[in-house]
Design brief:
By secondary structure, the chain is mainly alpha-helical. The chain has helices at 4-15, 19-22, 58-67, 87-108, 115-141, 164-189, 193-216. The protein has a domain at 92-145 and 159-216: Ferritin (Up-down Bundle), CATH 1.20.1260.10. 57% of the residues lie in helices and 0% in strands. The protein starts with a helix and ends with a helix.
């Protein structure tokens, strides 16, 4: 009878379910290393090859694709067309560009040495002043804002530098290339029909200016 408790205890241990004593304690789940691709994450039909472990996770690819921004390079006088902008923004950009070219040409007249460049400068003053007036009339009729004309300072005095003609010509070429892209896009895809017509009518004049400037560039 003295051995009965010990016998009962041994019998209870032997009769205990196997799973109660054989399973190890489960620890916290270990995360996969960054960039690891498992067979379960592959699409049906794909194989996990030797180079698959370095693949970017699919969620990262989707995130990059959703934040990708399209490249929108403006045309620079060639056959390409830049992305059209809204009508009010076109009025602002075209007016400011025209005003800048008029002021630059007017100030350069007293310093330019090449007779051909002097003729182009006079042409720019006349043509862009007229184009700005037509554009302002369209915008005012539609109650759109028009940038105010900048204040005119006194004409430059003194002798121009030896490379003034070349620098002024390069500046005017760059400005006219931007204007050609702006007007070409508006002429082909602008929303307002009056602005489209204005851009179509004015574009050949700007292209003619650009061709003359390029011809005289040295």
């Amino acid at each position: 009878m003295k051995h009965a408790p010990l016998s009962l205890l041994l019998a209870g241990i032997i009769a205990a379910p196997v799973w109660a004593v054989s399973l190890p304690a489960a620890g916290p789940a270990q995360p996969l290393p960054d960039g690891t691709v498992t067979a379960a994450s592959l699409a049906p039909g794909e194989n996990l090859t030797a180079g698959s472990a370095s693949l970017v996770p699919l969620m990262a690819i989707d995130t990059q694709a959703s934040h990708a921004s399209p490249v929108d390079a403006p045309a620079t006088g060639g056959g390409e067309v830049g992305k059209p902008i809204d009508d009010i923004t076109f009025v602002k950009k075209a007016t400011e560009s025209g005003q800048k070219e008029v002021n630059s040409a007017r100030e350069a007249l007293a310093q330019l040495k090449e007779p051909g460049l002097k003729q182009i400068a006079e042409m720019l003053v006349n043509d862009h002043s007229g184009a700005n007036a037509r554009l302002a009339k369209i915008a005012e009729d539609k109650h759109w804002p028009v940038p105010a004309a900048p204040m005119h300072g006194p004409p430059p005095s003194g002798t121009a530098t030896a490379d003034f003609d070349a620098k002024w010509t390069a500046e005017m070429i760059a400005g006219h290339e931007r204007s050609v892209a702006l007007y070409r896009a508006q002429a082909q895809a602008g929303e307002d029909p009056d602005l489209r017509k204005y851009a179509r009518d004015t574009l050949p004049t700007i292209e003619r200016h650009l061709a003359e400037l390029r011809r005289l560039q040295k």
